[in-house]
Specification:
Elements lengths: L3 H24 L5 H5 L1 E2 L3 E3 L2 E3 L2 E2 L4 H6 L1 E2 L34 H15 L15 H15 E2 L4 H35 L1
Antiparallel strand pairs: 1-4, 2-3, 5-6
């Protein structure tokens, strides 16, 4: 059986997941390395059938599902600081996994992010104060480590949306492929 139409519709589903994921990230103001990395593979065939993969930076799963903080009571920032879990239902938790790196590596990457965003330290009255981006990185990284990372559900929501579209797209693709198969069989006689 020729699967040209089914492949075409699977490509549409794949592209929809990629498009919706990127749209969801953009709505969160997260256009950057993760956004640029999201892509779908070509449709492949194995013994189980046709499939594709959605590729992205490794940390995309943490942005999508969030990460539980280690200890929200240790959050710095005075009375205004929010001292609660950002992702209480996440399957991921800081300090429990096998992701390579140390807290210092994490703090340095946050410092680079803060520098790119031009974040500055301020006192309680809102005035700028002295401090390096390394200091900013350690403060923000410590708060993220203890409070966790809020889930964006950028991929999960895109995937669920595409799942709602799949029955219609697959039905149409299969119908066209079967019609094409029958037509080829009739023409051979």
């Amino acid at each position: 059986m020729i699967n040209d139409n089914l492949i075409k519709y699977l490509e549409e589903v794949r592209d929809l997941i990629v498009e919706e994921s990127k749209k969801n990230l953009a709505n969160e103001g997260m256009v950057g390395k993760l956004y640029d990395s999201i892509q779908g593979t070509v449709i492949e065939k194995d013994t189980r059938g046709l499939y594709f993969k959605i590729l992205m930076e490794d940390y995309g799963k943490f942005q999508d599902k969030g990460v539980k903080g280690k200890d929200p009571s240790k959050v710095k920032g005075g009375d205004k600081a929010i001292k609660e879990q950002q992702a209480p239902d996440s399957p991921y938790e800081f300090g429990s996994g096998n992701m390579a790196g140390t807290f210092d590596d994490f703090a340095l990457s946050v410092a680079d992010w803060a520098k790119n965003k031009n974040y500055r330290l301020r006192d309680e009255k809102g005035r700028f104060v002295r401090g390096t981006y390394e200091t900013i990185g350690k403060i923000i990284a410590g708060n993220i480590y203890n409070r966790g990372l809020r889930p964006t559900m950028f991929f999960t929501n895109a995937f669920e949306y595409a799942q709602q579209q799949i029955p219609y797209k697959l039905e149409e693709g299969l119908k066209l492929d079967v019609e094409k198969d029958i037509e080829i069989s009739i023409n051979k006689k």
